[in-house]
Amino acid sequence: MTMDVEMFMPLITEASQAKTLAYQALGQAKEKDIQGYEKGISDAKKHLIAAHKKQTELLQLNRREQQIDINVYIIHAMDHVTNAQMICDMAQELAELHLKKE
């Protein structure tokens, strides 16, 4: 089975949106906007979950013996998901520091 854009592009799109929203949420935390931060990180997590679901769908294709071609595009897409997870996690950690009561 050949890898086409419909298979890997949703991973990149959802993961990129998650990263963008996590950075925006962190900006809200820097400004001490708790509600803005909470909404932003919640939205980021929704996109991250969507990216993980798309990733799982691809992985299940291999399990059902419908082998997918491993190429630079799928590796790039999987990297986006991993990076989005790390950025969301780090944004949450940094936000805690910014929102900590002094």
UniProtKB/TrEMBL annotation:
Gene3D superfamilies the record matches: Phosphotransferase system, lactose/cellobiose-type IIA subunit
Keyword Ribonucleoprotein attached: no
Key words of the record: Phosphotransferase system, Sugar transport, Transferase, Transport
Entry superkingdom: Bacteria
PROSITE patterns noted in UniProt: PTS_EIIA_TYPE_3 (PS51095)
Residue numbers carrying Phosphohistidine: 76
UniProt cross-references to InterPro entries, sorted A to Z: PTS_IIA_lac/cel, PTS_IIA_lac/cel_sf
Name of the molecule in the record: PTS lactose/cellobiose transporter subunit IIA
UniProt organism field: Oceanobacillus locisalsi
Taxonomic lineage from the root: Bacteria, Bacillati, Bacillota, Bacilli, Bacillales
